[in-house]
Design brief:
By secondary structure, the chain is an alpha/beta fold. It is built from twelve helices and eleven strands. The chain is globular and about 55 Å long.
């Protein structure tokens, strides 16, 4: 940890990057680290690289939060919540050109691709891991809000099996900053636009129980999305709703992001390990939450994914 502190102190320019299709833990980690560096290391230039910020998480960010272009190389790049350098997306080249590289992550599949790798696959989230690295006496409310948001997103508001006693202790410590925890949960999980509600209804109506009711799966084509004016980010939270189905052990939501490209989100109740299923299709994640991207016709990707799931049923 002393090496990480020394690397931050030595760098005048710092880049932060997270995985493609960022979620609450990823955006929470990016905003938390940026704010922590801003208040404790004044004068340093800190740029954040990410695909986008989901609408439900924009309360964490400033309008100019994302850096789209930078000339020259950074003194330090900190990769957050990203299990593979390729999943940094367009920021991968920025990562490779940086003078020093650090990875802070909680994905068990992370091979350790940076010069310094702080990886703990047993912890709930990257934001919880960051709480073990940060000095709470040097943290402000804004940082605490970001860390809390990341933790509740990767634990399903503290209901998933990755919620440990230490997770609850960490959340309790963050609440000492008088953060608006109820508002954060409302904005992040329960507040939906009309289009998002239409999309949820469509996804539920198209869902099917398969593999002897072990899995519930739904597919939404690009034409169906266009008919109601839905975008990729409108799918946030739908797979978790499918997961609540009493009969099943896991849920799958597949949506076509462009012709022939299907984004797959999976959630498990714990019995089924999703990591090998996602890995078989070039994706990754955790035992109970994982995803991948598949290519082909609806029929081809559907049959391929079902075969992979069936092979991993226990």
């Amino acid at each position: 940890m002393k090496n990480l502190k020394a690397m931050i102190e030595a760098a005048s320019t710092i880049a932060l990057g997270g995985h493609v299709r960022p979620d609450g833990d990823c955006i929470g980690a990016l905003t938390a680290v940026k704010e922590y560096i801003r208040i404790n290391y004044p004068g340093k230039i800190v740029d954040c690289f990410s695909e986008n910020v989901p609408a439900a998480l924009t309360f964490l960010t400033e309008p100019d939060f994302l850096c789209r272009k930078h000339t020259g190389n950074y003194g330090l790049f900190i990769a957050l919540d990203c299990a593979d350098s390729k999943r940094l997306g367009q920021a991968e080249s920025v990562f490779g050109a940086a003078a020093a590289r650090v990875c802070i992550d909680h994905h068990i599949s992370n091979p350790g691709y940076a010069q310094i790798n702080i990886i703990d696959g047993a912890i709930s989230s990257t934001c919880e891991l960051l709480c073990t690295l940060m000095d709470f006496s040097k943290m402000n409310q804004k940082t605490a809000i970001s860390l809390y948001t990341g933790i509740i997103h990767d634990t399903g508001v503290l209901q998933y099996s990755n919620t440990k006693p230490q997770t609850l202790k960490t959340v309790a410590a963050l609440l000492e900053f008088d953060i608006p925890f109820s508002d954060i949960i409302e904005k992040s999980f329960y507040s939906k636009t009309y289009v998002q509600n239409l999309l949820l209804g469509l996804s539920l109506s198209k869902s099917r129980l398969v593999l002897e009711n072990n899995c519930i799966i739904s597919m939404v084509s690009i034409e169906e999305q266009a008919a109601i004016g839905a975008a990729d980010e409108d799918f946030e939270g739908i797979v978790s709703q499918l997961r609540l189905t009493e009969e099943c052990q896991m849920a799958v939501l597949m949506h076509e992001s462009k012709a022939g490209e299907w984004r797959v989100s999976m959630r498990s109740k714990g019995k089924i390990d999703l990591i090998p299923i996602a890995a078989a299709n070039g994706g990754g994640g955790h035992r109970v939450a994982a995803g991948c991207t598949m290519y082909g016709t609806a029929a081809v990707v559907y049959e391929k994914l079902l075969k992979d799931i069936e092979e991993n049923l226990t």
